[in-house]
Task: inverse folding
């Protein structure tokens, strides 16, 4: 069974009297350990698809099987729990809490469902994560004192602290220069290959997408191409 | 999420903008300070009042003769003189809630000492229990005892005003004063009692055995203050000696029958009765009424021919007066708390808007709506509690300061402190709920995109 299985997912927005179909029947399967790039022009519906995949939004119709469970009909709390336990997010603008240290930013998700853990254990896990992304010496720094690349690495550590099955990255390199982008993508690849975390990367930059093993193109709410890149 | 963690993060959020937090809580601080100060001052005033009332004898009952209608002419209260020693003895014997009874007869008139004269407010004839009943102590000398009462001794005790006005400050013990040309020896001086609730000077008093007054002084026994009523024919019984008066106690005073001058009247102006304690006044009242109805041979359909009055109503009235004043002021204080609460709500709404992205992020990483709700609710409760604590400190200092400066009686009220803490939490919940609810139902996608 695939980790993710979308069956004829549709999403239609209602604007007054007008129905605005954004996703028109998308069916995708993503296996465990894949690294998938989701590309498409703006307005193609890739953000909407991303929101549905990330359990932030509900499809109008269709089935969404995640890790053996149909989750398209879950209510808000149910989806919050899925996000907390199975999904990690990395955003374009990092979304770190201001005036909060890197370490506290990283352990923030733990406080929501891992309340059985002691404070000490949480901090340990946070430190471990920050060391993995190479920020062992920046734990007590607040975001304002970190570079963009460092901030994004803190965000990655935060996304991984819950040991998620999938990592969603929405334009993770959009605000970074080439050198930092490379660094971030290298970390993604490492997480994907070493830890087997499935990564879904939303980007419109083709050179970023080309680092992934599979590229899915969305156009006008439908999958226009789905190709697995064979790396030399 | 652990509460400790939530509270810590709330404190952190609050500390992020200390000036704003302080200004936000100011409304609560002022409201709580006002509540605390008012309640402490109010409680102090009430305690002081309670002490005053106890001093006036809150457990006493007064009985007066009732009004009478004769041939269509109504005499008004005290028109009849129908309280007798028989009534008194019956009450003393039958009423379990009554600890002591004393008759009260009074005259008005000039008293003379040497070249001075004075017209005291009260010249009262009572028995030896009177001082106990009215909760009055002797400051110098000694009171007259039962023996002197039985004998009709020509002795008296005087109040502080008499000492000042008649004796001009010199020690009156052992001196003789004259009332209606009868000489009385001063054997005791009463402690200062001050004005009573009507504003009468209670120290302007001469107290003597009632037997002496009845037998020696004119105008005692019939109504003395309302002289117009004395024209009413008084039905008085005549007895030849106090052995009739003290039927039960006569064996105690073997010399009484020989030494006592004849007492002609056994009717008295009024009775003063003490219950065992303020709580048993109700019971005593019922028993006294029943006893009097029996001795006056009143049928079930007859009206009472006497009036009974306790201090309870009066003290209740006064207490409720202070209470309602305090309550009124408290209402004002609570209004300021509500205004403070609106301030809190306003700032929390601003805070929710400011932190929309943070809320979106927290939701994205798995916070449920209820987690967000709790976070913001606790934040507003913490703000209000901080304000409450500050207000308690401020209010307490304020009432202490006022107490010291103005000499007001102030009492630390733990109830007020507990109430204030409760109220601040309540304000926090009440006015924090709407912003928190708004935060909780944000759409994570929208919130994350919010600029």
Result:
């Amino acid at each position: 069974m695939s980790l993710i299985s979308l069956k004829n997912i549709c999403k239609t927005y209602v604007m007054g009297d007008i129905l605005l179909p954004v996703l028109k029947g998308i069916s995708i399967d993503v296996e465990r350990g894949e690294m998938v790039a989701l590309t498409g022009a703006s307005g193609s519906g890739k953000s909407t698809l991303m929101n549905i995949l990330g359990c932030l939004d509900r499809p109008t119709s269709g089935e969404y099987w995640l890790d053996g469970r149909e989750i398209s009909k879950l209510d808000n709390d149910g989806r919050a729990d899925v996000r907390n336990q199975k999904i990690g997010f990395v955003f374009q603008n990092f979304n770190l809490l201001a005036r909060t240290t890197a370490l506290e930013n990283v352990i923030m998700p733990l406080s929501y469902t891992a309340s059985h853990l002691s404070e000490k254990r949480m901090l340990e896990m946070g430190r471990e994560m920050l060391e993995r992304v190479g920020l062992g010496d920046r734990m007590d720094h607040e975001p304002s004192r970190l570079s963009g690349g460092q901030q994004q690495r803190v965000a990655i550590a935060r996304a991984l602290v819950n040991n998620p099955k999938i990592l969603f990255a929405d334009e993770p390199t959009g605000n970074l220069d080439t050198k930092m982008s490379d660094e971030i993508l290298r970390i993604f690849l490492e997480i994907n290959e070493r830890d087997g975390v499935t990564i879904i990367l939303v980007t419109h930059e083709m050179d970023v997408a080309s680092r992934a093993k599979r590229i899915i193109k969305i156009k006008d709410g439908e999958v226009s191409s789905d190709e697995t890149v064979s790396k030399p | 999420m652990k509460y400790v963690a939530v509270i810590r993060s709330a404190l952190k959020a609050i500390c992020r903008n200390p000036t704003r937090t302080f200004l936000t809580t100011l409304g609560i601080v002022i409201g709580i300070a006002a509540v605390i100060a008012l309640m402490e001052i109010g409680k102090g005033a009430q305690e002081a009042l309670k002490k005053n009332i106890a001093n006036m004898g809150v457990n006493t009952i007064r009985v007066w003769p009732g009004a009478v209608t004769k041939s269509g002419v109504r005499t008004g209260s005290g028109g009849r003189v129908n309280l007798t020693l028989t009534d008194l003895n019956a009450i003393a014997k039958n009423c379990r809630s009554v600890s002591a009874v004393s008759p009260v007869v009074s005259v008005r008139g000039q008293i003379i000492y040497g070249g001075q004269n004075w017209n005291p407010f009260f010249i009262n004839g009572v028995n030896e229990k009177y001082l106990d009943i009215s909760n009055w102590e002797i400051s110098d000398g000694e009171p007259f005892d039962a023996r002197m009462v039985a004998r009709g001794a020509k002795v008296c005790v005087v109040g502080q005003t008499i000492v000042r006005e008649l004796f001009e400050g010199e020690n009156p013990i052992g001196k003789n004063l004259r009332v209606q040309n009868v000489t009385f020896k001063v054997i005791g001086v009463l402690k200062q009692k001050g004005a009573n609730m009507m504003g009468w000077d209670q120290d302007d008093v001469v107290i003597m055995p009632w037997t002496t007054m009845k037998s020696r002084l004119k105008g005692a026994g019939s109504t003395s203050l309302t002289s117009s009523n004395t024209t009413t024919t008084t039905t008085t019984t005549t007895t030849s000696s106090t052995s009739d008066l003290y039927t039960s106690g006569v064996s105690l005073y073997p010399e009484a029958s020989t030494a006592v001058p004849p007492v002609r009247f056994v009717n008295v102006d009024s009775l003063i009765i003490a219950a065992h304690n303020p709580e048993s006044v109700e019971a005593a009242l019922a028993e006294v009424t029943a006893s009097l109805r029996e001795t006056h041979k009143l049928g079930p359909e007859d009206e009472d021919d006497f009036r009974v009055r306790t201090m309870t109503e009066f003290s209740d009235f006064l207490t409720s007066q202070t209470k309602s004043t305090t309550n009124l002021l408290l209402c004002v204080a609570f209004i300021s708390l509500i205004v403070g609460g609106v301030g809190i709500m306003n700032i929390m709404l601003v805070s929710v808007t400011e932190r929309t992205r943070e809320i979106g992020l927290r939701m994205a990483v798995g916070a449920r709506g209820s987690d967000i709700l709790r976070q913001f609710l606790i934040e507003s409760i913490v703000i209000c509690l901080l304000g409450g604590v500050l207000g308690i400190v401020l209010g307490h200092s304020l009432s202490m300061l006022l107490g010291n400066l103005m000499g007001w009686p102030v009492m630390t009220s733990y109830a007020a402190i507990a109430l204030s803490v409760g109220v601040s939490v309540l304000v926090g919940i009440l006015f924090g709920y709407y912003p928190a609810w708004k935060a909780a139902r944000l759409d994570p996608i929208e919130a994350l995109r919010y600029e």
Remarks:
- Strands of chain A lie at 4-15, 18-30, 35-39, 61-66, 69-70, 87-90, 166-170, 198-202, 214-219, 222-228.
- The two ends of chain A are 28 Å apart (CA to CA).
